[in-house]
Design a protein that fits this description.
Blueprint (H helix, E strand, L loop, with lengths): L6 E5 L3 H17 L5 H16 L3 E6 L14 E5 L2 E7 L4
Antiparallel strand pairs: 1-3, 2-4, 3-4
Length: 93
């Protein structure tokens, strides 16, 4: 388990939610192969949808770019092991 070894790069999430994000990501790495980014992301999204309501998005990988609009207080970008994690709740326009 890599819990506690995550490095947050950018966030506007409350600290408690940040801890949840990193804990769920760490658990996902125990459940799925590190190369199965889609299953890892789907698991994290499902957990966040259940805990905080629907509309969450999750991107997991080693090299990606993105541009998005998110709801205030729902964004985190961190890395854990060799993977980068981007979790956010989409904003309604």
């Amino acid at each position: 388990m890599l819990e506690g070894k995550a490095k947050v790069e950018e966030t506007d999430m409350p600290v408690k939610m940040q801890m949840q994000a990193m804990r769920i990501a760490s658990q996902s790495l125990d459940l799925f192969d590190v190369f199965d980014s889609i299953s890892i992301a789907a698991h994290i999204k499902k957990e966040f949808d259940e805990r905080y309501g629907s509309g969450w998005q999750c991107v997991v990988g080693t090299n990606f770019g993105c541009f998005f609009t998110h709801s205030k207080g729902t964004f985190i970008y961190f890395h854990l092991g060799t993977l980068n994690f981007l979790i956010f709740k989409g904003a309604t326009v």
